[in-house]
Amino acid sequence: MIRSMTGFGRGHFEDDVLACTVEVRSINHRFLDLHIKLPAELPALEVKIRRLVQSKLKRGRVDLNMNIEKNESAGFDLNVSLLQAYLNVVEQLRRDFNISGELDLVQLLRIPGIINLESLKLSGKPLERVEEGATKAVISALEDLNRMKMEEGKALQADLLNRLNTISAEVGRIESQAQDAISAYRDRLANRLKELLKGVEIDPHRLLQEAVLYAERSDITEEITRLQSHSEQCRTLLDSAEEVGKTLDFLSQEMYREANTILSKTTGITGNAMSIANSAISIKTEIEKIREQIQNLE
After folding, report:
1. Contact criterion met (CB below 8 Å) for 181 and 276
2. Cα-to-chain-centroid distance, residue 290
3. Using an 8 Å Cβ cutoff, are 49 and 42 in contact?
4. CA 251/CA 163 separation, integer angstroms
5. Helices H, strands E: what count in the chain?
6. pTM for the whole structure
7. Under CATH, what is the fold of the domain 150-294?
8. How far apart are CA 121 and CA 267, in angstroms?
9. Distance separating alpha carbons of residues 2 and 30, to the nearest angstrom
10. For the segment 60-82, what is each residue's pLDDT rounded down to a tens digit?
């Protein structure tokens, strides 16, 4: 099942010491662009979390934020020296720049390093347990993210399949109308020559030969075959569980090129040329919409 690159996930772990909450957001990006924000007390977890995310996600701009709160049962010490340093700076700002205002105690406690895991004196097995719980929260958040991405992927798949069906119908219409290209051009050429030669007899075999030569140059059989083949490849990829966004983007570019070639080769043909052109334009319109949707696929 294909997945969107857009999604949000949340994971939570809690024990008698700490509560850990992880939020993961993902948006479109050509590659996997990972940004991890961890508490200052757990820098060693970044490498492990980065590898974990890389094993679950393939593409997208991913922002992972982890927040750790202390339960009431947990005791802690205040980093007095660091707090005093901040207060000294605040006092200097008031004195030198005449800045007024009251300090927010909650904001002070949120300053990195004022209260941290080192202040809890966690090391060895207790710290390992905290890191294990944080890892579980990350895994839960990634699973939640992937569920959302798969749900959006289902909607994208349905829309893309509908557009591919429209393209296939237009390609079939072009294929049936293209059979009249030789006779249409022969009639046009005959009428034009009659106007120019004013009654001079025209060799019908020569006329047919010229029409066939023109038809060979304007033959769109190859383009029709490629459009049909690319459409089937797209359908197959939409049922795949692999990363398909880049491949689908390439195929849509090729399909757009084939539709453009059909338009250029059928320009100037009378009869059903307008109908062929309208079908080719419809195909190009659907491909443009497909390419917009594909940009959101992983």
Report:
1. no
2. 12
3. no
4. 14
5. 9, 4
6. 0.67
7. Four Helix Bundle (Hemerythrin (Met), subunit A) (1.20.120)
8. 79
9. 16
10. 999 999 988 766 555 566 788 88
- The answer to whether the 7-76+121-148 and 150-294 domains have the same CATH topology is no
What integer pLDDT is reported at residue 277 of this predicted model?
84
CA–CA separation, 105 and 17 (whole Å): 23
Residue ranges covered by each domain of the chain:
7-76+121-148, 80-109, 150-294
pLDDT band at 214 (very low <50, low <70, confident <90, very high): low
Q: Residues in the chain, how many?
A: 298
Buried b / exposed e along 55-89 (16+ C-beta atoms within 10 A) = eebbbbbbbbebebebeeeeeeeebeeebeeeeee
The tokens for 286 are: 């659907």
Terminal-to-terminal C-alpha distance of the chain: 11
* CA distances in angstroms from 218 to 179, 204, 208, 257, listed in the order given: 12, 21, 15, 16
Judging by DSSP bridges, how do beta strands 7-14 and 32-37 pair with one another?
A: unpaired
Mean pLDDT (the chain, rounded) = 82
Alpha carbon distance 224, 265 (integer Å) = 12
What is the predicted pLDDT for the residue at 162? Answer: 95
Strand partners, 69: 19
Considering the segment(s) 7-76+121-148 as one domain, its CATH architecture is 2-Layer Sandwich (3.30)
Cβ 227 vs Cβ 259: under 8 Å: yes
**Rounded Cα distance, 55 and 48, in Å:** 11
How far is the C-alpha of 196 from the C-alpha of 203, rounded, in Å?
15
Question: Distance of alpha carbon 27 from its chain centroid, rounded?
Answer: 7
Residue for token pair 């662009």? 33
